[in-house]
Amino acid sequence: MNLQQENFFLKKFPQVGEGSSEWIQLEYDLQLGLGSISAVIKDIKAINNQSLQFQFQKHNQNRLILESWIDYEELEQSQKIDEMCYKGFEFKDPQKGHVFPTGYIELRDNSESKKQHTVIMFKIAVGRSQCIPYRKEEIQSRDYLKDKNSNFDSLYLYDEANDQQGSVFLHRYVLFDKEQVLPMYQIKFEFDDSKEKDLQPLTCDNQCSNKAKFYCKNDDAYFCHDCNFDIHNNNQQTFNQKHHTIEISKKEKSFGNCKVSDHQGTKLELYCMICHEALCVYCKIQGSHSQGEPAAHQLLRISDAYKKALHESKVLDPQLEKRKNELTDHLTNIDQKIKDVSSKSKNIEDRIYKLLEDGLKLLQQKTKEKMCILIGDQLELKRQYDQIQWIESFLKYQQNVLNPAEYLKAWSRHSQLRNKIISADKYQIEEISSDIHMDAQPIKITSENNVQSSQNKQNQQDPNENQSNVLRGNPSSQFRSQILGNNKNSSAKDKNVSMSNFVVNNNTSRNQIKGQSTLQTIGIMNNGATSSEGA
Ligand SMILES: [Zn+2]
Ligand SMILES: [Zn+2]
Ligand SMILES: [Zn+2]
Ligand SMILES: [Zn+2]
Questions:
Q1: Where are the alpha helices (DSSP H) in 424-498?
Q2: pLDDT tens digits, 165-181
Q3: Half-sphere exposure for 414 (CA within 13 Å, toward CB)
Q4: B box-type domain location, by residue (predicted)?
Q5: Exposed/middle/buried for residue 280 (C-beta within 10 Å: 0-12, 13-18, 19+)
Q6: Fewest beta carbons within 10 Å, which of 117, 319, 458, 523?
Q7: Cα of 234 to ligand 2 centre, how many Å?
Q8: Region 3-196: CATH code
Q9: Which ligand lies nearest the alpha carbon of 271?
Q10: Residue 273 half-sphere exposure toward CB, CA atoms < 13 A
C-alpha cells in the first residue's frame, strides 16, 4: 500500500482513540485471549463498513454470534486487509470453508524475538453447529466440505483430546458463507511474554534460588526462610537482629508513582471511583481532579480501594452464579435427553435386528426346502444317467474279452436290461420355481421434531413440512449427525457419552449383521454342495 492509499484507507476506516472505552475493552479481550497481561495495543483500525454490517445483521438474525481473533499472517496470502474492509472476508474455496477459532488467540509466530503482531477481530455467526470430531494435527491438512442438505449453520470441530485435558479454552468453528463473517477491527499490538516473568514470585536476594518468604525493611531485600534465619536470627550478628522483617504476604504493596509529568516521583495515594484511575496528591490539588466536575468525584485511599476490590472479587457474583446454574440445569437436561435418545435408538436398533434375524431365518428355511427338493431330483437323475453309462461300458468290456459265441449270449441279456431301463417309469421331477420373494414394509423411523437451523425456523413456509423426520435412503448419516449435533452440548459435562462411541457402535453392529447373514448364506450353499458331491 502506498502512502496515498494508506491515507485514504485511514480516512475511510478510522483509528480507535487510544484509551477510549472501546480500546480498553479490546485490550482486555486481547489479554484474556492470549492469557497474558503483557499485551499492549499500539493501533486499532475499526472496519466500519456499513453495508457489510447491514448484510451481516440481516443475514444472521437469531443466530449465535461469537468473536474470533485471527493472526493477520494467517490470512495475508489470501487477502489484503484493505480489500477485506471493502468486500468482506473472502473464502479461498467456499465449498471447503474456513476455520475460525474463539477463545484462546493463536499467534502464528509465538517466538520471543517477535514482539509486534497484527490480528483481525471478526464477528462470526455460528448459529447452530454440526459437531465434527477432529484431531489437532489434521487442522491444516483437512478440508471440511459443505453439506448442502445440512440444516446446520456451521461446523463445530470437536477435539476430544482437548476436552479431556480441559486446559485451553479454545473452540473451532468452520464457516462457509461470507455473510456469516464480519471483519471488525485490525489490531496491532506488542506482546512480550518475558515481561511477565518479572511478575513471577520473588526469589531470595541472598544469591540463592529459593522462593523469597520474608522482607527486611532495613535491607530493602527479600529472603528465603533459611537465609532470613541466618542473617537476622544468628546471635553473632547482633546488629542485624534489630532489623524489622515481615512475611511477604503482610508487606504493604507499593502502588507506584504518578505518571503525570509535573508529578513525577510522587506516590499514588488516591483512587477515583468514577474515572477508575489512581491519583497522587498533586492530581487532586492542581491536576486532573482539582477543578470542574472531576473535583467532586469520590476519592478513596488507594489501599482501601484495593482492599475493597479484593474483597468484592472474592464474593461470588450472584448473576454469574445464576447463569452458571442455568447452564448446569440445561446441561443436565440435555444429558438426560441424550441418554433417552440413545436408549430409544438402541431399542429400535434391537427390534430392527430382531426383524432382520427373523427374516433371515425364514429365508434360510425357504431356501433349504427348495434346495432339498432340487438336490434330491438332481441326485436321482444323475444316478439314472450314470447307470446307462455303466451298463454300456460293461457291454464294451465284454466285446473286448469274450469270444463271439459268449458275446452273443451276453448281448441278448444286455438287450433285455436295456429294454427294462427304457420301459421303466419315468422319474417324476418336482416342478420347483426358483423364485424367492420378499414382501417387506419399508422400515420408517419417525420423531416428533427435526433439528432446524434458526434461519430455517424463521423462513419456513409450510408448517407441516419437516414435522416428522422420516429417514429414507441413507438413514445412518442423518441419524448420526443428529446424535452428534445433540451430543456436542453435553461434551463439556458428560464424557461417558462420547461421539466416537456412537460411531464405533454403529459400525460394529452393521458389520456384525453383515457377517452373520453372509455366513448363513454360505452355510446353505455348503450344505447343497456337500450333498451333490456325495452323488
Ligand atoms: Zn535485615
Ligand atoms: Zn535464600
Ligand atoms: Zn475522577
Ligand atoms: Zn499526579
A1: 454-459, 475-490
A2: 556 788 889 999 989 99
A3: 17
A4: 199-248, 253-302
A5: buried
A6: 319
A7: 15
A8: 3.90.228.10
A9: 3
A10: 12
